[in-house]
Every structure is written in C-alpha cells, then in structure tokens.
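User: Predict the complex with flavin-adenine dinucleotide.
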Amino acid sequence: MNPLASDAKSLGCLTPSPELLKQLMLQPLGSVPVRVCSGGNSSRCAGDGSWTVDLRRHRKVCYHENSREIEFGTGLTMAELLQVLRASDRSIPIGLSGLTGSGFILTGGMGPLSRSQGLALDSITAIDGIWGSGEPFALSEHQTAEDVCRWRALMGASPFLAIVTRLRLRTQRLQPLQVRHGLIPPSQLSELIQIAESWPETCSLQWSWGKRLEIYAVDCSSDKPISRKLKELDPILGRDQHAAIQHCKDQLEQPTFGSLASQAVASRPVHSEVLARLGPALKHEAGPLMELLSCRMQERPHGECRISAQQLGGATMRIKRESSSFVHRDSMWKPWITAAWNPGDRSGRQQSLEWMNQVSADLSTTCPGVHLAQLHDHLPGHQRELVDAFGDWLPELRQLKSALDPEGRLPPL
Ligand SMILES: Cc1cc2nc3c(=O)[nH]c(=O)nc-3n(C[C@H](O)[C@H](O)[C@H](O)COP(=O)(O)OP(=O)(O)OC[C@H]3O[C@@H](n4cnc5c(N)ncnc54)[C@H](O)[C@@H]3O)c2cc1C
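Assistant: Here is the predicted structure with flavin-adenine dinucleotide placed in the model:
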C-alpha cells in the first residue's frame, strides 16, 4: 500500500462483499467523503479521519472467448488480469507496473503500449457500480441517449461519482516487447525527446530523473528481431552496462521502471505526492524546458523528489475528446512530479510540496492539462487541478455530481 496512505490515521477499513456494498453506501457513515482503495497505490486511498472502502474482495474474473472481452471485479491488479489473459494469448494495455488496481484504468492510466492500443479506459465496454447516492448502475458502451453523459463522466472521473465494482474490457493480441533502459546525461534528454516525437506509434519513451536520469524506451512492433529504433539509441546510451535491448514475452516481463534513477542505497519508505500534467509534442521547446527542469532538479528538497514522463499519442489521440472525461486527447507527454519527504517531517513535506507546485507551474505552459491519477482534495491546489484536468467539461461533471452524489460521500469535485 502507498506508504502515506498506510500511515494515515484512518477510521478503519470496510471490506464489503459486492452484495453488502450497496447497503453500506445507504448507511449514514459519520465521516464523508469515504476513501476508495482498489490497488492501494495512491496517497488518497486512505486518509486521516476517513473510512476506506477496500475493494479487494471484488475478485471475480472471466474471459469471454466469443467477444474477446475480460470481465472482472475491481479488486484485481493489472498483473492479475494479465495472468488470466495470458492463457488465451490476450492482454490489455497496462502501465509501467502490474501492481496498480482499477484506479489505474478509471483515472485514464496509460503505459508503453498506449500509443498503439489506447488508454486502458478506451477499452472499457461495460461498467457497474454504485453512485455516491447509493443507487446501483450498470452501463455499457451502447448506452441509451440519457446515459451518454454518465458514461462519459465515468470514463476518467468515476472516483468523484461512484464506486465501480465491475468492469468489462476489450482485449488485444498478446504483444511481445523490446525494452531498452539505461542512464543518460541530462544534457541529452531534449534531443531524445525530439527523436521520440518522430517515432512510429509502436514505440514509446519514458524517463525518470532523480539522482540520475533513466530512460526507458519500448518497441512493441514484432516485425524485426532487433528493434531499429531502439538500436538507434546506441550513441545516446553509450556503453551503459544496463542498456542492452531486453526481449519480453509480454508486459508482465517488463523490467522495473525508475529503479536506475533512484538513490544507490535502498532507503526506508518515504511519503510522497504525485502530480501529473499533460501536453502536446514539445518539438523545439524541449531544449529550454529541460534546461529549466535541470535547475529545478538541483533545488529538489529531498533525494527521492523526481520528475518523470511517459509518452502518449497515436491511438490515444484518435479518440474523440467528447467521448470521455480524459479531454486532453492532443497530448503526447505526461510529465509527473514526485514530491517526497521523510515520514513525520512536516517542514520537509511543505518544502517538497512547494517544489512540486513550482515544477508544475514551470511545466504548465507546455503541458497545460492535468492527469488526475492521484486525488489531491486535501491540498490547496485541488480546485485548480480539477479545472486543468477536465476543462470545459467540468461544469457538467459538477451537475452530475450534485445529482449522483448529493451528500458528497465521494471526494469533492
Ligand atoms: C508503481 C506505480 C506505477 C505506476 N505506473 C503508472 C503508469 O505507467 N501509468 C499511469 O497512468 N499511472 C501509473 N501509476 C499511477 C497509478 O495508475 C494511479 O495512482 C492510480 O490511481 C492507482 O490506482 P490503484 O487502484 O492502484 O490505487 P488506489 O489508490 O486504490 O486508487 C486510486 C484512486 O482511484 C479511486 N478508485 C480506485 N478504484 C476505484 C473504484 N473501483 N471506483 C471508484 N474509484 C476508485 C480511489 O478514489 C483512489 O483515489 C503508477 C503508480 C505506481 C505506484
């Protein structure tokens, strides 16, 4: 579980079965909003003075051969879903870790295959759950006219409106991957970003800048034994011993992202918050932006503070903006900022959050959108983040919130 959430002085953890969840949501809970925990990776799956509804008992899973869809309870992790699908040679596009839960799908999570296969939420064909009001719902992508708005709201904004208990997703043919990760000098990052912006959509670049700068390039085209695009990184990666091309049978075999960028000695768990932005191709703006980030990296208040990014585009851009709450469909980059501090260090927390906000402000010109993969309803910037995440769709989302969660049992919008 996320260390900050795990150390929270929570009122307790409720683990209702699917049948009991509805009754639970109709009870007066004493303290609202409730927190919802699926994979437990975000800082807000538990909070001081809040109840947590833990979905880890919602674990039914079934692969439908005829439709090639997977239907599952929202207590399963992405790795568990991939394990089930492996047997049928199928998969779904997950992120950089198999540990994430349904929060990854519902908040518009993306991964190295998203440029060719879309966001995880673009594969959703059916969704069941309970609105904040306690009313159950079951919607499918072929909704009636009156459900169109509700469907759109659930695709990327469901944490504010509902507890989702079951999802059905289209699957894709199992895809082998070639991964190349290694360390580069920061001065080469802007050049690499511009190279990646011209890659075919079967390739993607991820990077993580901590003590060192790690790059993580993935190619999922299976037509060449050795990826030409990854081979072209030779001059940038030099003789880095980690940087050999790795062949992975599927996403379950992806090497760990971010491990090369961190401190040499594994330290004790730190507390952290993460803020993610979204923006289009950087082109010639990559150079000045990376210079600015380089200055910010020198000012970071804790060794585990980082700036990272992953690449979108291709399939994620082809989806109509109006079809989901993930409105930044022109995005090619999701940079995210990790603010870290030692547990209990209040001034360290404050400094790190200020640093995160400063970096976010630096990025906001080139990356105006926000990806709400972590809720920050306990931080002063929450309202601004909502505006940057949902843009002109936010007023309608708020109307839906007042109808579907009138007592504010779920996080504020
Ligand atoms: C190691 C690691 C790797 C990651 N890699 C990526 C990546 O490659 N790409 C990317 O986009 N993100 C990535 N993330 C971010 C991650 O996807 C988000 O933090 C996501 O919200 C985590 O979902 P969860 O279910 O695991 O966590 P949780 O903390 O359980 O859930 C996150 C939020 O979603 C809400 N939520 C969860 N389940 C439900 C539900 N069933 N109904 C309603 N609301 C719900 C909760 O309110 C909670 O605030 C990564 C995070 C980690 C820790």
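The domain at 177-392 is CATH 3.40.462.20 (Vanillyl-alcohol Oxidase; Chain A, domain 3).
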